[in-house]
Amino acid sequence: QVQLVESGGGLVQPGGSLRLSCAASGFTFDVYFMSWVRQAPGKGPEWVSIISPGGASTTYADSVKGRFTISRDNNRNTLYLQMSSLKPEDTALYFCARGTGLGYDARGQGTQVTVSS
User: Fold this and answer.
1) Is the separation of the CB atoms in 17 and 115 below 8 Å?
2) How many CB atoms lie within 10 A of CB 86?
3) Which of 7, 12, 96, 114 is the most exposed place for a label (fewest CB within 10 A)?
4) Tens digits of per-residue pLDDT, 29-75?
């Protein structure tokens, strides 16, 4: 069955960095668009970034453009999100998803990112 397992979240000070990983299994990873989506407490999900199957094309929400970088290693079936210059408003549960943005058909449980001093 499809499995997506995120890791790498945690508590970080404003201005800090984190790298999230998502290990995929149970499907042919390298033929799917993949996304990172986040959900802050009391808010709806917000798509963060999308990457094409081969990794050549990426898209970012305006709120993270220039600070976050999505990438993938199709040999390791792993999706990444490098986050830098983190802000308190980036605090959320981050999950990886199979598909484009909020139009995903599978998602992981998520990893919590908290940005606070």
Assistant:
1) no
2) 22
3) 7
4) 999 999 999 999 899 999 999 999 999 999 999 999 999 999 999 99
